[in-house]
Amino acid sequence: MAGVLEGRSALVTGAARGIGQAIARTLAEAGADVAVCDLNAEWLAETAALVEAAGRRVQCFAADVSSAPAVEATVTGTLAAFGKLDILVNNAGITRDTLLVRMSEEDWDAVLAVNLRGTFLFTKAVARPMLKQRSGTIINVASIIGLIGNAGQGNYAASKGGVIAFTKAMAKELAPRNIRVNAVAPGFIETRMTAALPEETKRRMLEAIPLGRFGSPQDVANVVLFLASDAAAYMTGQVLTISGGMGM
């Protein structure tokens, strides 16, 4: 789909590694200028190099997605650099897995702050310029766990379930101004985050995947690119699972 995003600009959160990095690179290869946001500025430089290698402009923002001032500064900086913002990908996310009886309030709050509050803050910040230009597309990275739940991930499931519900609400709210809002719900994707899981957990999850393999960040990026493109022009409020059939 090279060139399908020519002339457009995008902002990707959580873009330093894994799924976010694959999304940023893929959007750039499709023709978009890309602003990338993450807490780790050093890792973010690697993503920036990939965007530049695709021949596109890039802006880097080291920002905490749960901080309203940091979010506003990131969106303002993106608009200043590119002149407009056509695509937002809310990808930033963390986990603090443990059983409910062991979960601290801090673990609960941290996950909800990044995964759900961050999605809210960025969506609110980009809605203003998108409403003014009467166009835009927002893609939220949820999770299959937000649809089916998982023991030991109460905070993560709640945050991603919230992202899914928020996606549907915003799709209805913003559709009259030609702004599309959709979500992807990845299953088990091989990233640094999932690499830390115990081998027994990975084995059990693999058994639950009909396609018999774990996903890659590129699998997710491909679907995000589809949703960002005009090929999905008549889609809004949808949640596309990328899970190899897990949870169907």
Contiguous runs where pLDDT drops below 50 for at least 5 residues:
none
- Examine the coordinates and then state which fold CATH places here, giving the name of the CATH topology: Rossmann fold
Helix content: 40-55%
Please describe the biggest sheet, giving its number of strands, its sense, and whether it closes into a barrel: 7 strands, parallel
Q: Return Rg in Å.
A: 17 Å
Mean pLDDT equals 96
Number of β-strand runs: 7
Helix and strand content put the structural class at alpha/beta
Name of the level-1 CATH class: Alpha Beta
The fourth-level CATH homologous superfamily is NAD(P)-binding Rossmann-like Domain
With helices defined by DSSP (H or I, 4 residues minimum), what is the helix count?
9
A few lines on this structure:
The chain has 248 residues and is α/β, with parallel strands linked by helices. It has helices spanning 18-29, 41-53, 68-82, 105-133, 145-148, 154-174, 192-195, 199-207, 217-228, and strands spanning 9-13, 33-38, 58-62, 87-90, 136-141, 179-186, 239-242. The chain has a single domain, classed as Rossmann fold.
Please give a structural write-up:
This protein is α/β, with parallel strands linked by helices and 248 residues long. Helix 2 links the parallel strand 2 and strand 3 (58-62). Helix 1 (18-29) runs parallel beside helix 2 and helix 4 (105-133) packs parallel to helix 6. The mean pLDDT is 96. Helices cover 48% and strands 15% of the residues. Strands 3-2-1-4-5-6-7 form a seven-stranded parallel beta sheet, sandwiched between helices. It has a single domain (9-241), classed as NAD(P)-binding Rossmann-like Domain (Rossmann fold, 3-Layer(aba) Sandwich). It has nine helices and seven strands; from the N terminus they run E-H-E-H-E-H-E-H-E-H-H-E-H-H-H-E.
